[in-house]
Specification:
By secondary structure, the protein is mainly alpha-helical. The protein has two domains: about 30 residues; about 80 residues, Leucine-rich Repeat Variant, CATH 1.25.10.10. About 50% of the residues lie in helices and about 5% in strands. The protein has five helices and two strands; from the N terminus they run E-E-H-H-H-H-H. A two-stranded antiparallel ribbon has the order 1-2. Helix 1 packs antiparallel against helix 2 and helix 3 packs antiparallel against helix 4. It starts with a strand and ends with a helix. The structure holds zinc ion (ZN). The site of zinc ion has 8 residues, from loops.
């Protein structure tokens, strides 16, 4: 399994405590569950972070993230974030679900 820095969301080695990208100590980043951190990262002001978080949530098939991802597709103005959220929803839910959703909300 791949590990990610819970501050900057770049890929890091599991054995690394200090992130080589942002310098944050993983052991000091709090005891919040990983998926919760990812959900929080969906609202990160730096646009590449929500994109990355959405991708990882999709990989993890994190069902609890679905309402947040759907929210993102409705309210985000960033097409890259919307695209990442949609592809993540597709990974989490089956194809029929997302097809219905796309028809309902006219997502291209
Ligand atoms: Zn980092």
């Amino acid at each position: 399994m791949t590990f990610f820095c819970t501050n900057c969301w770049k890929e890091i080695d599991r054995s690394t405590d200090v992130c080589p990208h942002c310098g944050k100590k993983q052991s000091e980043l709090g005891q919040e569950p990983f998926v919760k951190k990812l959900i929080r990262a969906l609202k990160h002001p730096e646009p590449s972070t929500p994109v990355r978080a959405a991708e990882i949530l999709g990989e993890l098939k994190a069902e609890e993230a679905l309402p947040y991802l759907i929210e993102l597709t409705k309210h985000s103005k960033d097409p890259f974030i919307v695209k990442a959220a949609i592809s993540s929803i597709k990974k989490i839910k089956d194809t029929n679900y997302i097809n219905n959703y796309e028809q309902q909300f006219k997502i291209p």
